[in-house]
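To illustrate the input format used throughout this study, we show a single complete record. The first block contains the structure-token representation of the backbone; no residue identities are included at this stage. The design step must infer an amino acid for every position from geometry alone.
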């Protein structure tokens, strides 16, 4: 018998091989064929394709840095850089899934393989292809589990693309489908939570997550969902529920970061916020800080303790803790950004220190990506504080230097020598303080007893801060210094900060209150300036002093306007503008300064009438005087429109040499609408008529006055060209210049201003479609006063159409008459233009006329900084119409 089996064995093997070869046919539908293809498709091609996709999803999860300061997203966001880095995984997954389809056509794994192909296309951003695959499976697949998953993934794709009508249809369809598997129900309810998250319907997120929990056995997923539920309950003020779910999130082996925040937040909602035992609360934070397991989270601990102290009213202690928090090492740069942002808020609202607000905003922005939701808002706010800092620093620097210039050369040298000696002493003291602050743990004490002591620490040079500092200063004396520009808090110090007369501007009290952001190591890097370089900065020549005085004159004026119109600080605006008038009584800015003082004093119930009388006495023909005398004048968009129409008519008469008629229209318009966006162009046209009807001297005098007061840069350039020409003897220059300009019929009425400019020059604005953009809606004064209703309507509009974008709305002044409403952020130009199209077609509000809606535009962050500096909306519109 045994011999018989041995004899038949080769034939048995041959028969098996033959059966295998026959079964390799992908078309023949036999039991053997199906068994073979089902087995090989499942455990070869399909299995490996699915594993590759799992590997990619693990990478997405690993690369995403959770932001625990915000509610965690339902799904891990997909970063394009992660997809690009794992392109090979996706290609391999698609290749293997395609083999499962092409080589095993009769197996039951063809439809699941198609599903994997759709998922690969989704991750690659090929949404049309992926959606077509999912739709195909819904129509053609006989496997309910595959069909349901395809529909759920199609739903998620619709949500990603904000195709909510399509998403609603899929939700309705799935709600009627029977026998959805447990795994698909989990995915469906998570996707529904994502749907509500995207639309901003926060009340519906929690029920959806609860349902998802019912159908998942994945402990890690359960932990993360419970954490999100804890966050949502904490925001809602339901502390007991928040505590429960934070505690639940601790099960399931979460990573240490989530464990830390779950414990921290659960303690906050359970005890810290309600405790009257302040010492116990502070001890809790101190214990967290001392725990070596929390080294990576010490910045968070100090930040949270600072927030606690701020709530108790201990503002200086909160600032100290925030300042310590940003010095702590940490992997989460975004967390540092939140700390700097909080510091900027404190110094803006509580301390009213706008200079430090600016610097902390700089620091905050350096820690956020331009795609982060608060980046654009901070960037637009920073523009205002950049302007404040620039003008404030001009005042402090020039005031000190001009004071020094009044000393004799010997006194100047003595002053600089004293300053350098004082600075050297300060640096040595800081080095000694740094040495004293070093930790003196048990091992340090043992080393000290071992004989390595001394008054300043180690005798080894590189361990001795005082020795390093002395050596650094000696090196500096011999070889000169190297500029320090990396840290504003150190490089900000200079001897110009010390005023000789003690005459500081009144815009802000800069308090050096011991908030030391720099580490001792940074302080030791500070170098003394060179004596000759300090002396060279003193303006001993009259020309330099005069230039600095002119800079101060402009700085006082700019600060006054900035503080009143942008920062809503009328008292500080009044102080700067009164200082301007006191120090520079002949300033050509006086009419506008009087006008702004009138507005500011009216706001604080001061003696506004004083400046109304001064305007009427000293500048009876000024547009600012006319504005004060006509409080019921038509303003806003109607005034802009009417004055623009009148300008067009007057310009046409001017071209026809009907000078008297043109002037009559101009003067009547300026009386009826004193301050509009067309005021400067009307004034310049009136000056051109002066060149025709009056003396050359009067013409030159008016051009000079225009240049001193006009804000529109293109008009200023043109006026300078006219003044230069007439000064060189071309008395009839106005006529020759105007003849070169295009006719009135080549531009719409509201763009006539451009016709009074010389040949077009290169735009200051640059195209950058990939940069973060913001949406801008210009508002006149009347609309700005009712902007609360408009903002509320916009919030509802965003919730319905852009809820996942987390858009923010804010308002700033761009000129005297115009405020702009800013909506941000948008990651690129395309997204911002899509928003504008939806805004124009779908947003309706009684407070927003159609004409005003159409005046909206989008702008990159970089170009917005230019616009806020140049204050010329029409100039940017010209660029916008070409670029967008």
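Output of the design step:
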């Amino acid at each position: 018998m045994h011999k018989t089996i041995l004899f038949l064995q080769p034939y048995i093997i041959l028969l098996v091989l033959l059966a295998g070869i026959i079964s390799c046919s992908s078309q023949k539908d036999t039991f053997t064929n199906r068994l073979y293809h089902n087995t090989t498709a499942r455990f070869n091609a399909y299995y490996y394709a699915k594993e590759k996709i799992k590997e990619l999803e693990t990478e997405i999860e690993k690369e995403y840095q959770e932001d625990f300061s915000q509610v965690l997203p339902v799904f891990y966001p997909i970063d394009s850089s992660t997809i690009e880095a794992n392109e090979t995984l996706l290609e391999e997954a698609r290749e293997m899934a395609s083999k499962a389809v092409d080589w095993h056509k009769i197996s039951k794994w063809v439809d699941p393989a198609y599903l994997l192909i759709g998922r690969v296309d989704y991750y690659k951003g090929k949404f049309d292809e992926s959606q077509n695959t999912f739709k195909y499976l819904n129509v053609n697949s006989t496997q309910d589990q595959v069909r349901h998953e395809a529909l759920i993934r199609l739903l998620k794709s619709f949500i990603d693309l904000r195709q909510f009508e399509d998403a609603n249809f899929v939700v309705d369809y799935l709600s009627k489908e029977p026998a959805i598997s447990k795994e698909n129900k989990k995915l469906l309810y998570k996707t529904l939570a994502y749907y509500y998250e995207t639309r901003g319907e926060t009340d519906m997120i929690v029920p959806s997550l609860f349902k998802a929990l019912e159908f998942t056995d994945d402990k890690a997923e359960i932990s993360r969902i419970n954490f999100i539920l804890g966050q949502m309950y904490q925001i809602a003020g339901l502390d007991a529920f928040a505590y429960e779910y934070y505690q639940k999130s601790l099960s399931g082996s979460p990573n240490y970061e989530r464990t830390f925040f779950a414990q921290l937040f659960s303690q906050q909602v359970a005890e810290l916020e309600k405790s009257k035992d302040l010492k116990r609360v502070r001890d809790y934070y101190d214990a967290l800080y001392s725990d070596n397991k929390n080294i990576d989270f010490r910045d968070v601990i100090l930040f949270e303790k600072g927030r606690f102290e701020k709530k108790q009213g201990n503002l200086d202690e909160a600032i100290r803790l925030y300042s310590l928090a940003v010095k702590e090492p940490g992997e989460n740069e975004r967390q540092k950004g939140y700390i700097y942002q909080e510091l900027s808020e404190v110094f803006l609202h509580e301390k009213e220190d706008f200079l430090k607000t600016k610097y902390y905003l700089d620091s905050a922005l350096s820690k956020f990506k331009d795609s982060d939701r608060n980046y654009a808002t901070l960037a637009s706010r920073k523009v205002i504080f950049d302007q404040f800092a620039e003008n404030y620093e001009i005042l402090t620097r020039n005031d000190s230097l001009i004071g020094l210039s009044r000393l004799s050369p010997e006194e100047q040298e003595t002053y600089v020598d004293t300053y350098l000696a004082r600075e050297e002493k300060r640096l040595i003291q800081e080095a000694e303080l740094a040495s004293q602050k070093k930790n003196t743990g048990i091992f340090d004490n043992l080393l000290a007893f071992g004989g390595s002591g001394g008054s300043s620490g180690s005798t080894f040079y590189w361990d001795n801060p005082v020795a390093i500092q002395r050596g650094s200063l000696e090196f500096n004396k011999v070889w000169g210094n190297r500029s320090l520009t990396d840290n504003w808090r150190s490089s900000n110090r200079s001897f110009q900060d010390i005023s000789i007369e003690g005459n500081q501007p009144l815009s802000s009290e800069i308090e050096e209150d011991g908030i030391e952001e720099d580490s001792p190591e940074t302080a030791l890097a500070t170098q003394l300036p060179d004596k000759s370089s300090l002396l060279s900065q003193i303006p001993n020549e009259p020309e330099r002093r005069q230039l600095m005085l002119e800079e101060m004159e402009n700085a006082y004026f700019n600060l006054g306007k900035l503080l009143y119109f942008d920062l809503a600080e009328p008292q500080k605006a009044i102080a700067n503008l009164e200082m301007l008038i006191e120090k520079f009584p002949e300033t050509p800015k006086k009419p506008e300064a009087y006008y702004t003082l009138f507005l500011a004093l009216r706001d604080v119930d001061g003696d506004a009438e004083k400046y109304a009388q001064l305007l009427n006495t000293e500048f009876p023909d000024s547009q600012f005087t006319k504005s004060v005398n006509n409080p019921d004048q038509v303003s806003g968009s109607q005034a802009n429109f009417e004055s623009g129409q009148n300008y067009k008519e007057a310009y046409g008469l001017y071209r026809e040499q009907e000078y008297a008629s043109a002037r009559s229209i101009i003067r009547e318009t300026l009386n009826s609408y004193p301050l509009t966006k067309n005021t400067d162009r009307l004034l310049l046209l009136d000056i051109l008529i002066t060149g025709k009807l009056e003396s050359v001297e009067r013409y030159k005098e008016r051009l000079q006055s225009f240049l001193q007061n006009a804000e529109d840069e293109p008009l200023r350039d043109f006026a300078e060209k006219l003044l230069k020409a007439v000064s060189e003897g071309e008395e009839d220059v106005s006529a020759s210049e105007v003849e070169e300009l295009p006719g009135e019929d080549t531009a719409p009425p509201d763009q006539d201003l451009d016709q009074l400019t010389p040949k077009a020059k290169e735009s200051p604005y640059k195209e950058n479609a990939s940069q973060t953009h913001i949406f801008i809606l210009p508002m006149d004064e009347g609309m700005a006063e009712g902007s609360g209703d408009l903002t509320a309507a916009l919030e509802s509009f965003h919730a319905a159409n852009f809820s996942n974008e987390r858009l923010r709305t804010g308002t700033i002044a761009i000129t005297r008459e115009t405020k702009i409403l800013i909506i941000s952020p948008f990651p690129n130009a395309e997204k911002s233009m899509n928003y504008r199209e939806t805004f124009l077609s779908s947003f309706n509000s009684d407070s927003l006329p159609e004409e005003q809606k159409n005046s909206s535009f989008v702008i990159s962050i970089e170009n917005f900084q230019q616009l806020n500096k140049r204050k010329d909306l029409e100039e940017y519109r010209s660029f916008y119409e070409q670029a967008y």
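Structural context for interpreting the output: The chain has a mean pLDDT of 78. DSSP finds 42 helices and four strands in the chain.
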